[in-house]
Design a protein that fits this description.
The chain is α+β, with helices and mostly antiparallel strands and 110 residues long. It has helices spanning 20-23, 55-63, 83-95; strands at residues 3-6, 31-34. Helices cover 24% and strands 7% of the residues. It has a two-stranded antiparallel sheet. Helix 2 crosses helix 3 (83-95). It starts with a strand and ends in a 15-residue tail after the last helix.
Length: 110
Amino acid sequence: GFHYYENGFMDSTKFDKGLYNVSHNMSDFGKFKTPSLRDVALTGPWMHNGMMKNIKDVIRHYNKGADGNGSSDKLVKMLYLREKEQDDLESFIKAISASPVEFKKPVLPK
């Protein structure tokens, strides 16, 4: 399923209020849905604003503790992954991503 986390992304020209836009509850201000990792390698660009163009950039971003300016969720911490570990994580993410299954619309009897 999905869970919410407080991103707190702030840009003076385009502020995304997140879940607040739907709920109008101030406690939801700056919260965004985050999906599971399954098939995530196929769903780019990444981040709520599409700023990451590849999985490696996402891994690097979180490895350094996200943006480092205090606007990320308080649970996001530096990962201290070495380059090999980052490569392994990228391989894992790609391994749990499958090619889309072709869907053929059935012909219904009349």
